């Protein structure tokens, strides 16, 4: 990502990082959602690839989604990613 020393660390799936900003020790909350067929396919694929449970995958997805929203707000709707080979890729989120 662009910027000087802009790094973001995600907590392990289903976990809370010790000392993380905004850390709290609340109990679990049960939520019922209706997923579209496309979302179900994405969830199944993510679970297969990560070998995480559906709960862990959804928890991580929400954390990542919130991070993306924050980055979009900071970058005006545009993210610049640095690939392992050093190349830059600009992603525009609408």
Biggest β-sheet description: 2 strands, antiparallel
| Strand neighbour order, sheet with most strands | 1-2
Q: Assign the structural class, choosing from mainly alpha, mainly beta, alpha/beta, alpha+beta, or little secondary structure.
A: alpha+beta
Residue runs with pLDDT of under 50 for 5 or more positions: 1-20
For the CA atoms, what is the radius of gyration?
Answer: 16 Å
Query: What kind of assembly state do the chains in view correspond to?
Result: single chain
Architecture overview:
- The protein is α+β, with helices and mostly antiparallel strands and 94 residues long.
- Helices cover 38% and strands 11% of the residues.
- The protein has helices at residues 37-50, 54-75, and strands spanning 78-82, 88-92.
- It has a two-stranded antiparallel ribbon with strand order 1-2.
- Strand 1 and strand 2 (88-92) form a beta hairpin.
- Mean pLDDT is 79; it is low at 1-20.
């Amino acid at each position: 990502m662009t910027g000087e020393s802009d790094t973001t660390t995600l907590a392990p799936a289903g976990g809370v990082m010790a000392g993380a900003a905004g850390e709290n020790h609340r109990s679990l909350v049960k939520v019922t959602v209706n997923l579209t067929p496309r979302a179900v396919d994405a969830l199944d694929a993510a679970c297969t690839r990560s070998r995480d449970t559906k709960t862990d995958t959804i928890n991580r997805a929400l954390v990542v989604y919130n991070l993306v929203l924050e980055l979009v707000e900071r970058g005006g709707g545009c993210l610049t990613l640095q690939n392992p080979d050093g190349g830059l890729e600009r992603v525009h989120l609408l």
